[in-house]
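Data availability (excerpt). The following record was deposited with the supplementary files.
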Amino acid sequence: MSRERGSPGRECRTRDSFGLDRTKSGWRNDSRLRRRAADLQALSEGLGFPHAGTMSNRLIKTSFAVLWLMLAITAGVAWFRTGLALRDIPEQLDEWLSVFGIGRAATLYIILYTLRPLILFPASLLTIASGLIFGPWLGILFTIIGENASANFAFRIARWLGRSWIDEREQSRLKHWDQKISENAITSVLIMRLIYLPFDAVNYGCGLTSMSQRDYFLGTLLGIMPGLVSFVLFGGAGAAGVNNRLWVFGGACLFFVLGLVIARLLRRSEPKEGQSQS
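Predicted structure:
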């Protein structure tokens, strides 16, 4: 920056690094503007007004939520217009995916299962369809991948959309519920999965809590297994080429009950309210 001396009675001018001339009064005005901007920002923080970045983030989330709602409504209307009953969906999926080879059909199935939470498509129907399409053993493998991907996808959506809203309510009952369920997150998720609470309700509800993604992943991976195996075997009992259908169906019932028994044992082992954990 260079300075140029002016004649008496004229303001001293400076030349900045961009080659622009500024007067001393100009620099003073810039300094005043910066101070005023800082004062306005401090005032807005004191009054509780959100920053521009916060407002932009909220706008993005609101836009996503609106588009998501529109997608779910469109999917519901489209399904209603087909007149297809829920009980017929596994067979329809079998007809649709059977035209592909096993690799391509499995890929499409996993993608469909992963994106399913966006339209709240019943997870149990896709699990049953897996046994019908791929048979019991491959069906279990592909459903483990798809169901876990689906659960964690929904968890991340809820964490992104709603977690900050929970954090803002320090004294609410939601905050108390959050702390209680997150203290022993793996066991909490295990029990919710084993007693067959609605799949997406658990996904989105856990996403709103402060539990870690790792604890949620482990609790889900272990907790869905009895129900997953049960529903896949149930669908596999009707698959073509499956022998001993009665045994397969019996195995489905056994795993279903096993999940409830494990959940009961876990709940008994939990410390009572007010007791310290040893």
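Summary of structural features: The first strand starts at residue 2 and ends at 4.
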